[in-house]
Each structure stands twice: as C-alpha cells, then as structure tokens.
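User: Can you write out an input/output pair for a complex, sequences first and structure second?

Assistant: Here is one pair. Inputs:
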Amino acid sequence: MEQFLQQIASGLANGAIYACVALALVMIYVSTDHINFAQGEMAMFSTYISWQLMTWGLSFWAAFVLAVAISFLMGVLIERLILRPLHNAPVLSIIVVFIGLLAIFNSVAGAIWSYLIKEYPSPFPKSSFGIAGVIGPHQLGVVMVTLIVLGLLFIFFRYTPLGLAMRAAAQNPQMARLVGVRVDWMLALGWGLAASVGAVAGIMVAHIVYLDPNMMAGILLYAFASALVGGISNPAGAVAGGFIVGILENMVAYAGNQIEKATGVYIIGNGEKLTVALIIVIFVLTVKPAGLFGRVVVKRV
Amino acid sequence: MASASKKWVLGIVVLAFVVPLLQPVLPDVVSDYRLFLVSTMIIASIAVLGLNLLTGFNGQFSLGHGAFYAVGAYTAAVLMDQLNVPYWATIPAAAIVCFIVGYLFGLPALKLEGHYLALATFALALAVPQILKYKWLEGLTGGVQGIVLMKPEVPFGLPLTEDQWLYYFCLIVMVVLFWAAANMLNSRSGRAMMAIRDQYMAADTMGIDTALYKTVTFGISAAYTGIAGALSASAIAFVAPDSFNIFLSIKFLIGLVVGGIGSLTGSVIGGIFYVLVDNSAQALSQFVKNDLGLPFDLSAYTVFGVLLIAIIYLMPMGIAGGVAMAWRKMRSAR
C-alpha cells in the first residue's frame, strides 16, 4: 500500500512537470496553431542558464527568477525574429523551423556546457519538507511550485487587462485588432510566457533527471501526450492531462512491476516509458483527437 | 523527364561506375575511404528519397523516418546474425518488413494531417531506441550492445576491394530504386499521389482511392528508407539502438529540405549534403576555434539547424529547386 501511495505521489510530481510543459505547448498552439517541437530544448537551455548563474554565485531562487526572466525574453525574441516573418507560410515550413530550433538549442547547449551529465541541486530542505514514506521533499516542492505558477497564470489571464487582451488575440485576432489590441505583440508575449513556464518545468525537473542537453526529450513526449489527453486547445485541460498522464505513467510501471513479481513475466517497466507515451499519443490522436476537455473542431469544406 | 536530362542522368551513372576503376591511376583521389564515404552518401540519398516520396510527392509529413531506417537495419542485422542470410538477400527482406510496418503506421496516419501527423511521427522517432531495447527482443537485437556484423565479401572472385564492392553494390541498389521511383511517379499512381498532395478533396471526388494511396505510399516510403537502413547495417557492419535517435530523423529532414521537397535529384543532393556536413563537422569546429578564434565547439547540428531555418527563408524549394529556377531564368533571358 505504501509503495502504491509513493507511486501516486511521484506520479503527481512528474505530472506537475508535464502539466507545465503541456501548458506551454497549448499556449502557443491556441494562439498560433503551431506545435512547438523546440519547447523541450528551450526549457533545457533555460535550465542551463540557471545552472550557469548558480555557478557564478547566485542563490537558487535568484537564479530561478533571473533564468525565467531571460527565458521570457528569449521566447519573445524567437517569435519576433524567426516566426513572425513566416506568419502565412505552409505548415511544413513551420515544422522545419521548429526542428531547426530544436537542433540549434540542443547543439549549442552541448557546445557551451558539454554533453557531460551534471548534478542539479534541489532547493527544498530535506528535513522539514515532505511526508516520510509517501512523498519526498523535492517531489512535494515541485508540486507546490508548479501549482503556484499555474495559479499566477490563471490570475493573470483571468483578472488582468493584459491577460484578457492576450486571450482575445488568441481567440479572435481580427476582432481583437479592431478593438485596439496589438495582436502581434500579444503573440510574442504568449511565446515569452510559454518559454518561462517551460523554464520553470526544466529547473524543477533537473534535480530528478539530471542536467544534460537531451534531458527534456522524454519529458516533451509526455507533455505532448498530456496536452493531447487534456485537449490541445484547452489550457486547463492540458494541466489536468499532465497530472493524469503523470499518474498513469507510474501506474503502468507499477502494474508491470507487480505482474512481474506475481508471475515472473516481464511485460512493461521503466524501460518502456517513452513507448507508453507514444501509444497514448497515437491512441488519443486517432480515437479522440479533441482529448478529454478539448473543443471538437469541425472543418468546413 | 525530358530526353536531355535523361542523357545527363545516364552520363552520371556511367561515370559513377567508371570512377573506382581509376584507382590504380589516381590512388590518392579515389581512395577506399572516399569510396566508402560515397557509399554512405548513396545510402543517405535512398533514405531521403523514401522521405521525399511521402512528404514531397504525397504531402504527408514524417519526422520519424529514422524509425523505418532502424527497422530496415535491424531486419538485415538479425537475418544476417541469427539465420546467416547473405547480405544481398536482406535488402528485399528489409523492404518487405518495412513496407508492412509503414503500411500499418499509415493506417492511423490517415486520420491525421499537418501538425498532428508530424507530432505522431516525432513521438515515434523519440521512442524508437527504447523499443529496440525491449527486453523480449533482447535475444534478437542484442539489447543495448547491438549486433556486430561482417562486411560484405566480394563475390565471384572479382578483383575488387571490400569498399569498392560495397560501393558498386550500393550504387546498383540506388540506380534500381531511383529508376523505379521515377517510373512510378510518371505513372497513373504517381499522378494520383501528387493529386492527393495538391488537392485532397478534388482527388477524392475524381475517384482516386485516397485512403489506399496514402497508406501504400506510406508503406513504399518506409520500404525505401528501410532498404537504406539495411544497406547501412551491411556497410557499417554494426547496429545499436542509440544510433537511431531523433537526430537521425532530423538528418533525413535536412536532406529533404536542403535538396528540395518533391524532387528526385534533390534527394541525391540532400543525401550527399548531410553526409558531407556530418563528416566535416570536426574540421568545421577546428576552423571556428583556431582560425576564427571563437571559443565555441561548433557541432554539425548547429549547422543543420541554422541551415534549416535559412533555407526556409531563402530557398524554400531547396537546392534542386533553386538551381532549376535559376536555370529557367537564364534560358528565358537568352
């Protein structure tokens, strides 16, 4: 039983990370209809920036805030400089540009900080945090930080004029432009926010998966699965999807473990995590493309 | 294809067959290592051609063609390793296996378009190394260790070195495959494939069985890339799961975009190009570090990434398309 609870708890912690990255993906998808294949690598790059800041002597939280701010700028710049001119380009061009960004971020991070795996500290005190036997201090901290970030984002989008303008720009760009919203800049801000949320996810997960240029590949795949399960057009759905997929992932591994213990037959375990995500992605895309909470898109022919 | 360009193609193929015979005359220019490098370029062009058949001629995206390359390579490796099948027989076997796998993947892909298909294939590319390491397959695939193979031997006592024979073998396979692809694209089926790419709805209304064509194209495309994988298993004489990562699929995408989307010649250019950049990455890095004095380890993927973006901006038709356009302009100016 205790093991079961532990699995749920670590599922929640993973789910919090997936929820953040999925939310970043959905924020870009809702406003531009693009799936950002470079989201994971951008988050990885932000994490390296925070690591660099810490080695230069900053405290964890100072580096955290600064790295998130730098990521915001990075997101805005990428949108303005690289994606804006391709506004009406065919889908393939956009995908190719995202893959190009992915390759650039990955290789540049490797070039600057090398491909050696680095340890990344956890900011949460071991003694006073967590519930013994159920949830570890870092896991609890991750869940709390992501919940705070998600809460702040909710308040921003729901109760501030800027948030309202951004939602308007995403939902109906033409009308928003008519009432005086600067849609271009709203898209760039959306990119900045997405990069920041991704950075939070990267910094939080780095203690668990260790820091290396390929650390986000698996997480990005799970974030895709989360966004799809929740409905890729629904931010709240993506967050819910993140937690669902996070728990599901650990349950599958747990079930596989139990089966192996009971019957001695190995079916599935930690080594098949990405395969599980692949199956979720293809299953949702073919069976229920709108996800659990998404809007069903009807195309007029 | 116009008759003039047919002559050109024939000339290049003949030249490609003659070049290794010059080795006794020019031993430094036509070295075994260079021939091996050209063999890998040939393999790369076949893989890019596979992706091009799907994306360039049928309009379905794939960021996961590395998966089919891996299936081809492993099919060949397992057949050679477990059943002692000769290397040449693994090519059709890999083609059949990959056709089936590609066809099956094409079925769910029917429901996906644009970004979603890219997403599904991207997920496939990320998961491939793990699938290859699956415990139940370990007996066949050798798990993380991979499989070590023998290099193809020279048949019939021909007076050739191993690398020369490999070069000829790859060249023959390439010529056959490109000839088949050109003929297919020139036929009714080829026009149907392109009609689906250009105007899906109209093609459907005209009575083209779009579902059949899309899935079969997926299968053929996977078979082409799988044959390239099988050739690479023979050429490198080694397969291991972690070499079939997402970056392999990105290389194919590079070849596709650089060469030219929807161009047979472009596939060759693209394949040659990515192997060249991959192989000169070390020299490039040295150049940046020592000659330009920048404290930066330039890797091939930085070049790839920058090029991908630059080409989308500057030459959306790729090198083949850009050259063809310049050629046409020159002709019309005269």
